[in-house]
Amino acid sequence: MPSSPEQPRASDRPERATGDRPLGLLVVVSGPSGAGKTTIAREVQDRLDGVFSISATTRPRSGQETDGRDYHFVTDEQFRAMIDRGEFLEYAEVFGRYGYGTPRRPVEEHLSAGCLVVLDIDVQGGLQIRNNRPDALLIFILPPSDEELLRRLRTRGRDDEEAVQRRFAEAKREIDLARSSGAYDAFVVNDELAEAIERTIDLVQRRRAGDEGGGR
Question: What is the CATH number of domain 25-53+115-208?
Fold first, then answer.
């Protein structure tokens, strides 16, 4: 896997701010397990005073999680009803067991208020966002190489080798899909975390300023 710099794609120009209203922007950060996307997404949110969208899920709540802060925990019936009513910007069933989705209303309310909204979601969700919000900025976080990705998956210590290999294969499929889909505005290689964070923040700031070259 080449450790190339972020690679731009042409995308719709975002609407500029009017009057005193700031420019709202939806930012999607995707990447395979071990690439560092969640850390980078959180840094974008914290340093640019963004809002982190809270997903809805049907999976059980753990003892350390709080409903409405970590996730919106819903039943299967509630999740299906939200799909039927078109209440998700994107949704998916993970491993055929639990549903995860991004509620549409709070995101659009924050954007209308001029906020920066950050989503940490997978490629399938990113493709749905591209269709539903073509004005969004989609950034994909890449590991510097296959070898480094495999090393990171192993050193997390969460899985046995068989599970690590499954995650590694899935990660490569995600990367291939992200590249071939044409949906992502930029690819940022996370070789050094601090540098990857700065590159990602720069992309967001340039797009939010209405810079048509914000993905370059």
Answer: 3.40.50.300
The confidence band for 211, taking pLDDT boundaries of 50, 70 and 90, is low
Q: Look up the pTM and report it.
A: 0.83
Q: How many residues does the chain have?
A: 216
Res. 63: pLDDT tops 60: yes
Q: Give the span between the Cα atoms of 127 and 202, in whole angstroms.
A: 23
Specify which of 11-15, 60-64, 104-108 reaches the highest per-range mean pLDDT.
104-108
Residue 204: both structure tokens together? 């967001």
Arithmetic mean of pLDDT, 197-210: 94
Q: In sequence order, which residues have a C-beta less than 8 Å from that of residue 91 and are 6 or more positions away?
A: 79, 82, 83, 99, 100, 101, 102, 125, 128
Question: Which tokens in the block code for residue 94?
Answer: 């993970």
Which pLDDT score, from 0 to 100, does residue 9 have? 46
